Amino acid sequence: MNVATNPWIWVSAILTLGIFSFLYKENPFYRVCEHLFVGISNGYSITFVWHRVLMPALIDPVAQGQRLWLIPIAIVGALYFTRFIPKVSWLVRIPIAIVMGYGAGASIPRAIDASIVQQVRATIITRSTFESVYNGIWAVVILVGVIATISYFFFSRERKGIFKPLSYTGIIFIMLGFGASFGYTVMARISLLIGRLTFLLRDWLGLIR
Amino acid sequence: MKIRLPLILVLVTGIVGALPFIIPHGIAQSFDNEFRNSILRIIAAFSLVLGVGSIVRHHTYKIKWKRENWQYSWILLISLVITSIIGLFGGIEGTGALPTSVRGFSFDIQTIFVYMAIPLGATMFAMLSFFMASAAYRAFRARNFEATLLLIAAFIMMLGSVPLSSYIFPRLPGFAEWILTVPNTAAKRGMGFGIALGSLATSLKIILGIERGWLGGTK
């Protein structure tokens, strides 16, 4: 057994055990760790935004007398503070409008390109798809699955005729997809758990190599 | 003024956001780059004020009115202030005006992040595996064919991801990979079309001022 001597490893281990203590029941130790997490994360965000965004993009160039036109931009950004002054709190809508308007506008062509055009292109079957027999078969399965899934979410028509078995095939694909996503997510969480247990047993207690 | 100005701004910036994709000219592209990397970046950075301000206000009220578990709010506020001071004045790598090392023991913001925030966050997410397993045990019952399919797909995915599975069934990892790349892709792609069309419609509604929920009221 080779217990860690670095005080930070001890801090990490105690905090890890604090969070894990919730598995028994909610307790003060867990609550302390939970609040500590929120406090530290916010403090880190403030630091990060200050040193990595505001300093290089605004404060440094303005302090050197360059890009002085950024000062009114900073004033617009500072309007976020008005959220906490009831009389002028409506002014917070100005920076929100700029950020959200640009985001909404930029997302329209991106969504059309990445989520519709590129996806249709990837689903379409051409002669080159069948260069490998297996790839061709799976491409046909994907094409059927995509059409079936879309038909399942098409609620403007009664499910009868060809539409009924097609939408049922859609449910089968959706269930397989959800099952795969669930299994994948569980395994991602399990790998995190293994990481934490490895930290406790190897880095902290030195029980394993 | 209180409603019209933000709506005009949202329309104008919405058009500005969409234009570079329609006009591939160099001037439009460089204007978009400047707008995104300078103007928008600075304004968006200030939005942190809303999040941090709300948290501080919420916990200050909690302490002031001695609401349930108010004592823990002190821990949050103190850790927030200390971390911010260390980060703002000590610099990210501990090269700022505030000394962040005493006799070889360093407590700069990066060290705090690595040894406190990362273990706390990772453990929080690792703990979800227990709750997911417990929820799955209660919710996943092979009641009908569709539920059984979901169960089997999840089981194959989980089993196929561990090295042991290849010793039991050598083809299982390959089958898990197939589920992920073929039926899963088909379902996700089909749903993706709906999501894309929905987000397109919402974006248009925001730009045209039909969707006004973000204004937070009509006053």
Helix content range of chain A: over 70%
Strand order of the biggest β-sheet of chain B: 1-2
> What do the pLDDT scores of chain A average to?
92
Mean pLDDT of chain B: 90
Secondary-structure element order of chain A, N to C: HHHHHH
Domain module count of chain A: 3
Largest sheet of chain B: 2 strands, antiparallel
**Alpha-beta content class of chain A:** mainly alpha
Can you summarize the main beta sheet of chain A?
A: none
Q: State the separation between the terminal residues of chain A, measured CA to CA.
A: 10 Å
Write down the Rg of chain A: 27 Å
Question: What series of H and E elements makes up the topology of chain B?
Answer: HHHHEEHHHHH
* Beta-strand residue fraction of chain B: under 5%
What coarse outline of chain B follows from CA principal-axis ratios? extended
Number of helices of chain A: 6
Q: What percent of residues of chain A are in strands?
A: under 5%
Structure description:
The complex is a heterodimer of chains A (209) and B (219). In chain A, helix 1 crosses helix 2, helix 1 crosses helix 6 and helix 5 packs across helix 6 (163-204). Chain A is extended and about 65 Å long. The termini of chain A are close together. Chain A has helices at residues 7-20, 28-63, 70-78, 93-123, 133-152, 163-204. Chain A has 3 domains: 1-68; 78-123, no CATH class; 127-209. Chain A has 209 residues and is mostly helical. Chain A is built from 6 helices and no strands. The longest helix of chain A is centred in the C-terminal third of the chain and has 42 residues, at 163-204. The N and C termini of chain B lie close together (10 Å). A two-stranded antiparallel ribbon of chain B has the order 1-2. Chain B is built from 9 helices and 2 strands; from the N terminus they run H-H-H-H-E-E-H-H-H-H-H. Helix content of chain B is 75%, strand content 2%. Chain B has a domain at 51-129. Chain B has 219 residues and is mainly α. In chain B, helix 6 packs across helix 8. At the A-B interface, helix 1, helix 2, helix 3, helix 4 and helix 5 of A face helix 1, helix 2, helix 3, helix 4 and helix 5 of B.
